[in-house]
User: Fold this.
Amino acid sequence: VSRTRYLVARIEFEVHEYGYHVPEDDPVVPVELFAQRAAAEDAARRLERAARRTLTPFRIGDELGLLTRRDEGELLAALRSVGLPPLPDYSAAWPGWWEEHVAPLSDDAQNLAWDLFERVKFYRVVEVKVEE
Amino acid sequence: MFLVRRRNWQRGAAGWVCLPGETVVASFETVEEAEADRRVREAAARSKVNPFECGPLRLLTHLPEPVLRDWLQDAGVDPPGPEYGTPGWAEWWHDRHAAMSVVQREKVWEGLDKLRFFDVAEKVDRPVVYAIVGVTWQYNDQWHYSDFDGGPVTEAYRSRERAEAECRRLNAVARERWRAALTGNADLSGDDGDAELRQFDYRGPGDPFADRRPRFTAERLLHLDDAPFYKVVEVDAGGVP
Assistant:
Protein backbone atom coordinates (compact mmCIF):
# COMPACT_ATOMS: atom_id res chain seq x y z
CA VAL A 1 0.00 0.00 0.00
CA SER A 2 1.38 3.42 -0.95
CA ARG A 3 0.51 6.57 0.94
CA THR A 4 1.31 10.18 0.21
CA ARG A 5 3.63 11.61 2.85
CA TYR A 6 5.43 14.92 3.23
CA LEU A 7 9.18 15.16 3.34
CA VAL A 8 11.00 18.14 4.81
CA ALA A 9 13.99 18.50 2.53
CA ARG A 10 17.05 20.72 2.61
CA ILE A 11 17.57 22.57 -0.66
CA GLU A 12 21.11 21.96 -1.79
CA PHE A 13 23.16 24.62 -3.48
CA GLU A 14 26.78 25.63 -3.88
CA VAL A 15 28.13 28.98 -2.79
CA HIS A 16 31.09 30.27 -4.73
CA GLU A 17 32.87 33.51 -5.32
CA TYR A 18 30.35 34.72 -7.86
CA GLY A 19 27.15 33.92 -5.98
CA TYR A 20 25.52 30.55 -5.71
CA HIS A 21 24.56 27.73 -8.01
CA VAL A 22 21.55 25.42 -8.01
CA PRO A 23 21.69 22.60 -10.57
CA GLU A 24 18.81 22.20 -12.98
CA ASP A 25 17.06 19.37 -11.18
CA ASP A 26 16.82 21.27 -7.85
CA PRO A 27 18.52 18.69 -5.62
CA VAL A 28 17.26 18.22 -2.09
CA VAL A 29 18.58 16.24 0.86
CA PRO A 30 15.86 14.45 2.87
CA VAL A 31 15.56 15.63 6.48
CA GLU A 32 12.38 14.19 8.03
CA LEU A 33 9.15 12.60 6.90
CA PHE A 34 5.70 13.62 8.16
CA ALA A 35 2.22 12.17 7.73
CA GLN A 36 0.52 15.55 7.41
CA ARG A 37 1.49 18.42 5.14
CA ALA A 38 0.77 21.00 7.87
CA ALA A 39 3.22 19.34 10.28
CA ALA A 40 5.88 19.18 7.58
CA GLU A 41 5.32 22.82 6.63
CA ASP A 42 5.66 23.80 10.32
CA ALA A 43 8.93 21.87 10.66
CA ALA A 44 10.30 23.37 7.44
CA ARG A 45 9.39 26.87 8.64
CA ARG A 46 11.15 26.30 11.97
CA LEU A 47 14.29 25.07 10.22
CA GLU A 48 14.18 27.95 7.74
CA ARG A 49 13.95 30.50 10.57
CA ALA A 50 16.77 28.84 12.48
CA ALA A 51 19.00 28.98 9.40
CA ARG A 52 18.10 32.62 8.76
CA ARG A 53 19.18 33.57 12.31
CA THR A 54 22.82 32.76 11.59
CA LEU A 55 23.02 33.60 7.89
CA THR A 56 23.23 36.78 5.91
CA PRO A 57 21.86 36.82 2.37
CA PHE A 58 24.80 38.90 1.19
CA ARG A 59 27.28 36.24 2.30
CA ILE A 60 25.52 33.83 -0.04
CA GLY A 61 25.75 36.21 -2.96
CA ASP A 62 25.98 39.89 -3.74
CA GLU A 63 24.19 39.82 -7.06
CA LEU A 64 20.71 41.08 -6.22
CA GLY A 65 19.12 39.12 -9.07
CA LEU A 66 20.15 35.87 -7.39
CA LEU A 67 18.68 36.93 -4.07
CA THR A 68 15.41 38.68 -4.90
CA ARG A 69 12.92 39.13 -7.74
CA ARG A 70 12.75 42.84 -6.94
CA ASP A 71 14.88 45.30 -8.87
CA GLU A 72 17.15 47.57 -6.84
CA GLY A 73 14.59 50.38 -6.53
CA GLU A 74 11.87 48.00 -5.39
CA LEU A 75 14.25 46.39 -2.89
CA LEU A 76 15.25 49.75 -1.41
CA ALA A 77 11.59 50.69 -1.04
CA ALA A 78 10.81 47.33 0.55
CA LEU A 79 13.73 47.70 2.99
CA ARG A 80 12.42 51.15 3.90
CA SER A 81 8.95 49.73 4.45
CA VAL A 82 10.29 47.36 7.14
CA GLY A 83 12.20 50.21 8.79
CA LEU A 84 15.69 49.53 7.40
CA PRO A 85 18.11 52.14 6.06
CA PRO A 86 19.29 52.05 2.43
CA LEU A 87 21.97 49.59 1.38
CA PRO A 88 25.48 51.06 1.08
CA ASP A 89 26.63 51.82 -2.47
CA TYR A 90 29.30 49.11 -2.48
CA SER A 91 28.18 45.48 -2.37
CA ALA A 92 31.27 44.55 -0.32
CA ALA A 93 29.71 46.54 2.52
CA TRP A 94 26.34 44.75 2.37
CA PRO A 95 27.19 41.87 4.77
CA GLY A 96 28.35 44.44 7.36
CA TRP A 97 25.18 46.47 6.78
CA TRP A 98 23.07 43.37 7.53
CA GLU A 99 25.07 42.68 10.68
CA GLU A 100 24.63 46.23 11.89
CA HIS A 101 20.99 46.79 11.06
CA VAL A 102 19.21 43.43 10.76
CA ALA A 103 21.05 40.94 13.00
CA PRO A 104 20.25 42.86 16.23
CA LEU A 105 16.49 42.86 15.46
CA SER A 106 13.97 40.41 16.91
CA ASP A 107 13.49 37.04 15.22
CA ASP A 108 10.25 38.21 13.64
CA ALA A 109 11.80 41.40 12.29
CA GLN A 110 14.82 39.50 10.91
CA ASN A 111 12.43 37.12 9.25
CA LEU A 112 10.58 39.99 7.59
CA ALA A 113 13.88 41.29 6.23
CA TRP A 114 14.81 37.82 4.98
CA ASP A 115 11.43 37.53 3.25
CA LEU A 116 12.61 40.27 0.88
CA PHE A 117 15.27 37.84 -0.41
CA GLU A 118 12.81 35.15 -1.39
CA ARG A 119 15.11 33.56 -3.97
CA VAL A 120 17.27 32.14 -1.17
CA LYS A 121 15.45 29.23 0.46
CA PHE A 122 16.99 26.54 2.61
CA TYR A 123 14.13 24.05 3.06
CA ARG A 124 11.01 22.95 1.28
CA VAL A 125 8.35 20.28 1.59
CA VAL A 126 8.31 17.52 -1.02
CA GLU A 127 5.39 15.16 -1.56
CA VAL A 128 6.52 11.53 -1.71
CA LYS A 129 4.82 8.17 -2.15
CA VAL A 130 5.73 5.85 0.71
CA GLU A 131 5.19 2.13 0.34
CA GLU A 132 4.17 0.89 3.81
CA MET B 1 26.91 4.95 17.43
CA PHE B 2 28.44 8.43 17.28
CA LEU B 3 28.81 10.27 14.00
CA VAL B 4 31.48 12.83 13.19
CA ARG B 5 29.93 15.32 10.78
CA ARG B 6 31.46 18.08 8.68
CA ARG B 7 29.32 21.18 8.80
CA ASN B 8 28.32 22.64 5.48
CA TRP B 9 30.96 25.38 5.23
CA GLN B 10 31.39 26.86 1.79
CA ARG B 11 33.65 29.58 0.50
CA GLY B 12 31.77 32.57 -0.93
CA ALA B 13 32.69 36.03 -2.15
CA ALA B 14 32.37 37.53 1.35
CA GLY B 15 34.30 34.77 3.13
CA TRP B 16 33.17 31.44 4.55
CA VAL B 17 29.50 30.71 5.07
CA CYS B 18 28.02 27.80 7.04
CA LEU B 19 24.88 26.63 5.26
CA PRO B 20 22.42 24.21 6.85
CA GLY B 21 23.32 20.52 6.65
CA GLU B 22 26.18 18.20 7.51
CA THR B 23 28.12 15.40 5.84
CA VAL B 24 28.93 12.32 7.93
CA VAL B 25 32.67 11.68 7.65
CA ALA B 26 33.20 8.92 10.25
CA SER B 27 31.35 6.87 12.86
CA PHE B 28 32.47 5.37 16.18
CA GLU B 29 31.13 3.17 18.94
CA THR B 30 31.98 5.63 21.72
CA VAL B 31 31.65 9.36 22.09
CA GLU B 32 35.29 9.57 23.25
CA GLU B 33 36.57 8.08 19.99
CA ALA B 34 34.29 10.36 17.99
CA GLU B 35 35.44 13.46 19.88
CA ALA B 36 39.09 12.51 19.40
CA ASP B 37 38.52 12.15 15.66
CA ARG B 38 36.62 15.44 15.55
CA ARG B 39 39.48 17.26 17.27
CA VAL B 40 41.97 16.00 14.68
CA ARG B 41 39.73 17.09 11.80
CA GLU B 42 38.99 20.42 13.47
CA ALA B 43 42.70 21.14 13.87
CA ALA B 44 43.33 20.31 10.21
CA ALA B 45 40.54 22.64 9.08
CA ARG B 46 41.77 25.42 11.39
CA SER B 47 45.17 25.31 9.74
CA LYS B 48 43.50 26.22 6.41
CA VAL B 49 40.99 28.86 7.43
CA ASN B 50 41.13 32.48 8.53
CA PRO B 51 38.61 32.29 11.40
CA PHE B 52 37.63 35.90 11.08
CA GLU B 53 36.42 35.27 7.52
CA CYS B 54 33.82 32.88 8.93
CA GLY B 55 31.27 35.49 9.86
CA PRO B 56 30.76 38.42 12.22
CA LEU B 57 32.22 38.20 15.74
CA ARG B 58 28.79 37.56 17.29
CA LEU B 59 28.68 34.21 15.44
CA LEU B 60 32.26 33.30 16.33
CA THR B 61 32.40 33.89 20.08
CA HIS B 62 30.27 34.39 23.14
CA LEU B 63 32.74 37.04 24.28
CA PRO B 64 31.96 40.70 23.63
CA GLU B 65 34.73 42.26 21.53
CA PRO B 66 36.43 44.14 24.43
CA VAL B 67 36.49 40.91 26.48
CA LEU B 68 37.94 39.00 23.53
CA ARG B 69 40.68 41.64 23.27
CA ASP B 70 41.49 41.27 26.99
CA TRP B 71 41.45 37.47 26.62
CA LEU B 72 44.01 37.67 23.83
CA GLN B 73 46.20 40.16 25.65
CA ASP B 74 46.26 37.85 28.69
CA ALA B 75 47.68 35.20 26.34
CA GLY B 76 50.33 37.58 25.06
CA VAL B 77 48.57 38.22 21.75
CA ASP B 78 48.16 41.83 20.66
CA PRO B 79 44.68 42.24 19.15
CA PRO B 80 44.26 44.40 16.05
CA GLY B 81 45.11 48.04 16.62
CA PRO B 82 43.57 51.09 14.96
CA GLU B 83 45.77 50.56 11.89
CA TYR B 84 43.44 47.69 10.95
CA GLY B 85 40.32 49.84 10.94
CA THR B 86 36.93 48.34 11.79
CA PRO B 87 36.43 45.45 12.07
CA GLY B 88 39.95 44.54 10.89
CA TRP B 89 40.15 41.10 12.51
CA ALA B 90 40.47 39.14 9.25
CA GLU B 91 43.33 41.29 7.99
CA TRP B 92 45.00 41.13 11.42
CA TRP B 93 44.86 37.30 11.42
CA HIS B 94 46.15 37.21 7.86
CA ASP B 95 49.14 39.38 8.78
CA ARG B 96 49.96 38.04 12.23
CA HIS B 97 48.94 34.42 12.68
CA ALA B 98 52.11 32.93 11.17
CA ALA B 99 54.22 34.77 13.74
CA MET B 100 52.14 33.54 16.71
CA SER B 101 53.23 30.56 18.76
CA VAL B 102 51.13 27.40 18.60
CA VAL B 103 49.80 28.17 22.07
CA GLN B 104 48.83 31.71 21.06
CA ARG B 105 47.03 30.49 17.94
CA GLU B 106 45.18 27.93 20.03
CA LYS B 107 44.22 30.66 22.47
CA VAL B 108 42.65 32.66 19.64
CA TRP B 109 40.68 29.62 18.48
CA GLU B 110 39.66 28.88 22.08
CA GLY B 111 38.25 32.40 22.33
CA LEU B 112 36.24 31.76 19.17
CA ASP B 113 34.17 29.19 21.01
CA LYS B 114 31.17 29.29 18.65
CA LEU B 115 33.17 28.51 15.53
CA ARG B 116 33.23 24.80 14.69
CA PHE B 117 33.81 23.00 11.40
CA PHE B 118 32.88 19.51 12.64
CA ASP B 119 30.53 18.17 15.27
CA VAL B 120 29.64 14.86 16.92
CA ALA B 121 26.06 13.60 16.93
CA GLU B 122 24.65 10.44 18.44
CA LYS B 123 22.75 8.30 15.98
CA VAL B 124 19.43 7.89 17.76
CA ASP B 125 17.13 4.95 17.11
CA ARG B 126 14.09 6.45 15.43
CA PRO B 127 11.62 5.06 12.92
CA VAL B 128 13.04 5.41 9.42
CA VAL B 129 12.02 5.02 5.82
CA TYR B 130 14.30 4.46 2.86
CA ALA B 131 13.97 7.17 0.23
CA ILE B 132 15.18 6.82 -3.32
CA VAL B 133 17.15 9.92 -4.22
CA GLY B 134 18.19 10.74 -7.76
CA VAL B 135 21.89 11.47 -8.26
CA THR B 136 22.52 14.97 -9.56
CA TRP B 137 24.83 14.85 -12.58
CA GLN B 138 26.28 17.95 -14.19
CA TYR B 139 28.37 18.30 -17.32
CA ASN B 140 31.61 20.22 -17.79
CA ASP B 141 31.86 19.86 -21.58
CA GLN B 142 34.14 16.84 -21.18
CA TRP B 143 32.53 14.48 -18.69
CA HIS B 144 29.65 14.22 -16.25
CA TYR B 145 30.34 14.83 -12.58
CA SER B 146 28.35 14.63 -9.37
CA ASP B 147 29.41 16.66 -6.35
CA PHE B 148 26.02 17.14 -4.75
CA ASP B 149 24.70 15.00 -1.94
CA GLY B 150 21.05 15.31 -2.87
CA GLY B 151 18.77 15.04 -5.85
CA PRO B 152 15.11 14.67 -6.69
CA VAL B 153 13.05 12.51 -4.29
CA THR B 154 9.68 11.04 -5.18
CA GLU B 155 9.33 7.73 -3.34
CA ALA B 156 10.28 5.93 -0.14
CA TYR B 157 9.85 2.48 1.39
CA ARG B 158 9.48 1.08 4.88
CA SER B 159 11.63 -1.89 3.86
CA ARG B 160 15.27 -1.36 2.91
CA GLU B 161 15.15 -4.45 0.70
CA ARG B 162 12.21 -3.09 -1.29
CA ALA B 163 13.96 0.26 -1.65
CA GLU B 164 17.19 -1.40 -2.83
CA ALA B 165 15.27 -3.51 -5.36
CA GLU B 166 13.43 -0.49 -6.74
CA CYS B 167 16.66 1.48 -6.82
CA ARG B 168 18.30 -1.26 -8.92
CA ARG B 169 15.35 -1.21 -11.32
CA LEU B 170 15.45 2.58 -11.67
CA ASN B 171 19.22 2.51 -12.22
CA ALA B 172 18.80 -0.06 -15.00
CA VAL B 173 16.13 2.05 -16.70
CA ALA B 174 18.23 5.21 -16.34
CA ARG B 175 21.32 3.50 -17.80
CA GLU B 176 19.38 2.45 -20.88
CA ARG B 177 18.14 6.01 -21.32
CA TRP B 178 21.66 7.42 -20.90
CA ARG B 179 23.12 4.79 -23.23
CA ALA B 180 20.70 5.85 -25.95
CA ALA B 181 21.48 9.52 -25.33
CA LEU B 182 25.26 9.02 -25.34
CA THR B 183 25.50 6.67 -28.29
CA GLY B 184 22.48 7.51 -30.38
CA ASN B 185 21.79 3.75 -30.19
CA ALA B 186 24.91 3.04 -32.25
CA ASP B 187 26.74 -0.18 -31.49
CA LEU B 188 29.77 0.99 -29.54
CA SER B 189 31.18 -2.34 -28.49
CA GLY B 190 34.98 -2.31 -28.31
CA ASP B 191 37.51 0.14 -26.92
CA ASP B 192 36.11 3.30 -28.54
CA GLY B 193 32.65 2.57 -27.29
CA ASP B 194 33.97 1.89 -23.82
CA ALA B 195 35.64 5.32 -23.76
CA GLU B 196 32.40 6.93 -24.97
CA LEU B 197 30.52 5.43 -22.02
CA ARG B 198 33.25 5.97 -19.41
CA GLN B 199 32.56 9.58 -18.51
CA PHE B 200 31.04 9.69 -15.03
CA ASP B 201 33.00 11.27 -12.17
CA TYR B 202 31.08 10.39 -9.00
CA ARG B 203 32.85 12.32 -6.27
CA GLY B 204 30.16 13.49 -3.81
CA PRO B 205 30.32 16.69 -1.77
CA GLY B 206 33.89 18.00 -1.74
CA ASP B 207 35.88 18.72 1.39
CA PRO B 208 36.08 22.53 1.48
CA PHE B 209 39.13 22.36 3.76
CA ALA B 210 41.16 20.14 1.47
CA ASP B 211 44.17 21.82 -0.12
CA ARG B 212 42.62 21.23 -3.50
CA ARG B 213 40.17 18.91 -5.15
CA PRO B 214 41.61 15.47 -5.80
CA ARG B 215 43.54 15.68 -9.06
CA PHE B 216 41.46 14.45 -11.93
CA THR B 217 42.59 11.24 -13.54
CA ALA B 218 40.83 9.42 -16.34
CA GLU B 219 40.91 6.24 -14.21
CA ARG B 220 38.46 7.87 -11.85
CA LEU B 221 35.77 8.05 -14.52
CA LEU B 222 33.11 5.39 -14.10
CA HIS B 223 31.61 3.45 -16.96
CA LEU B 224 27.90 4.03 -17.51
CA ASP B 225 27.21 0.52 -16.20
CA ASP B 226 28.83 1.41 -12.86
CA ALA B 227 27.58 4.98 -12.50
CA PRO B 228 24.74 5.49 -9.99
CA PHE B 229 21.69 7.45 -11.06
CA TYR B 230 19.65 6.67 -7.95
CA LYS B 231 20.63 5.80 -4.39
CA VAL B 232 18.86 4.74 -1.20
CA VAL B 233 18.96 7.16 1.71
CA GLU B 234 17.73 6.50 5.27
CA VAL B 235 15.30 9.19 6.38
CA ASP B 236 14.01 9.99 9.87
CA ALA B 237 10.30 9.14 9.88
CA GLY B 238 9.62 10.16 13.46
CA GLY B 239 6.84 12.41 12.19
CA VAL B 240 4.84 9.46 10.80
CA PRO B 241 2.84 7.32 13.25
About this structure: The radius of gyration of chain A is 17 Å. Residues 37-54 of chain A form the longest helix (18 residues). The longest strand of chain A covers residues 2-11.
